[in-house]
Specification:
alpha/beta; six-stranded mixed beta sheet; binds copper (II) ion
């Protein structure tokens, strides 16, 4: 179809006729008949579905025939971590947010058993968007704690579908994490790729503001107002960074099964440093190519595919960008392998550009600088919290491994400037730093803005930095930070 030239067609009527003809042709050869076949497709044998928690997905169906597929899903209400110091009671399908990934093929007869753990407090059910039938299974699956329900459905349409709890108040069940993805592969399976990952965005509403510590309850009014405290990938802040980051090697093709549980927000899904080679728009059959940002509706999904060509850290975001840098919708895909200067040159020339004087930007902080109980965390606790502060606040400039960017952001790894003077390092984080400094023999004359962190967070992040990447293993306490704060 690509090669048809419209130039010789002078009159509009002929063009219209051609378009009509093509549309008819397209709709005849498309998957309508296949869908019909799926209903009558014979099944051969029975298997139990292997369910996975994110970011893993079960193995591709390949060329297996349609079968009776047994799916056993258990609902668990359990406490989890939203971000450091913030706990939340999640309601889950299979113990994770998003819930277990279900992989089927068109024509499968799915026998679905939903069990509600006896320790749970509430009844739940499941509405699978892949189901053709009332409520997507919701009515047949409504189940009280300590009970289980079984129902069956035939997968008629290939695609990537959201499932979620649909028990009243529906919004609340979804807001607490009750959603996941079910993939219905076409006959013969999706084209093979090197890496497949499962990611879902979700928005959360807590009684306390973003970062407020302790066990946070769900806030109905904020949910109604669509005023999210957290917008996250895979159920929590840093669900996909640091040790949870996705990985790939240069040259590999990555497929992300990307869903959005909502309950409210749509996602402008973007990967910083990549272009989607292919997007299965809205998780259906239509493929768009060369896409920068794709919209994932609440209760919708997409499959995105891209080949990774150069090493580095790609950053997954909701490009409604305050959500990424201030509410948690930020993940990482670490690509290892050889540089390719034909694709990306690295910096070829650099200088400092400060039209407005010294304020580059104010970086996000994990918490507003609130006064807190002057209680010291243990070394292990500081290392833990420090890592998370580093990954949210410092890494963007000083880089994931503290290596910095030559000439612009000084290194924190094996850094002589840092190791020489602890008080000076505390001051830098508390008050910012500008003017010329020399780190490991290289001159820097740039600006670091003041970081709005609590004393505990400053102590933790510096302890983390000092105890990593070949540094001097010093410990920084909140008391030390407090005395530096009061000194100025
Ligand atoms: Cu529920």
């Amino acid at each position: 179809m690509k090669n048809i030239s419209f130039k010789p067609l002078k009159d509009i009527k002929r063009a219209t006729l051609l378009v009509l003809f093509l549309v008819t042709l397209a709709s005849c050869s498309d998957d309508k008949p296949k869908t019909k076949n799926a209903k009558d497709m014979l099944i051969t044998g029975q298997i139990t579905a292997d369910l996975t928690s994110p970011p893993k997905v079960p193995v591709p169906i390949g060329d297996r025939k349609a079968k009776k597929l047994i799916v056993n899903m258990e609902i668990l209400e359990q406490e989890g971590t939203m971000t450091d110091g913030v706990k939340y009671i999640y309601w889950t399908f299979g113990g994770s947010v998003p819930g277990s990934f279900i992989r089927t093929r068109v024509g499968d007869e799915v026998e679905f058993t939903l069990s509600n753990h006896p320790d749970n407090k509430l009844p739940h059910n499941i509405d699978l968007h892949a189901v053709t039938g009332p409520g997507g299974g919701a009515e047949s699956s409504f189940v009280a704690p300590g009970h289980e329900k079984t129902f069956s459905f035939k997968t008629l349409n290939p695609g990537l579908y959201v499932y979620h709890c649909a028990t009243a108040p529906v919004g609340m069940h979804i807001a607490n994490g009750m959603y996941g993805l079910i993939l219905v592969e076409p006959e013969g399976g999706l084209p093979p790729v090197d890496k497949e990952y499962y990611v879902m965005q979700g928005d959360f509403y807590t009684k306390g503001a973003n970062g407020e510590r302790g066990l946070q309850a769900f806030d109905m009014q904020k949910a109604v107002n669509e005023d999210a405290d957290y917008v996250v990938f895979n159920g929590k802040v840093n669900g996909l960074t640091g040790d949870n980051a996705l990985t790939a090697n240069v040259g590999e093709t990555v497929r992300i099964f990307m869903g959005n549980g909502g309950p409210n927000l749509v996602s402008s899904f973007h990967v910083i440093g990549e272009i989607f080679d292919r997007v299965f728009v809205e998780g259906g059959t239509l493929v768009n190519k060369n896409v920068q940002t794709t919209l994932i509706p609440a209760g919708g999904a997409a499959m995105v595919e891209f080949q990774v060509d150069v090493p580095g850290t790609l950053v997954l975001v909701d490009h409604s960008i305050f959500r990424a840098f201030n509410k948690g919708a930020l993940g990482m895909l670490k690509v290892s392998g050889e540089e390719d200067e034909k694709v990306y040159s690295g910096t070829q020339m650099e200088g400092i550009y400060l039209p407005e004087g010294s304020g580059i930007q104010t970086m996000p902080s994990t918490a507003t600088a609130k006064e807190e109980a002057p209680q010291e965390l243990s070394l292990a606790e500081r290392l833990n919290l420090g890592k998370s502060v580093y990954q949210q606040t410092c890494f963007a400039c000083h880089q994931p491994e503290g290596q910095g960017i030559p000439g612009i952001f000084p290194p924190l790894a094996k850094a002589d400037y840092l190791n020489a003077d602890v008080d000076r390092a505390i001051d830098v984080v508390l008050h910012g730093k500008s003017g010329e400094i020399t780190v490991n023999g290289t001159k820097y004359n740039s600006v670091m803005t003041k970081q709005t962190l609590t004393d505990t967070e400053v102590a933790s992040v510096l302890t983390f930095v000092y105890n990593n990447w070949g540094n001097s293993k010093k410990e920084v306490t909140s008391a030390m930070v407090k005395s530096r704060r009061n000194a100025k």
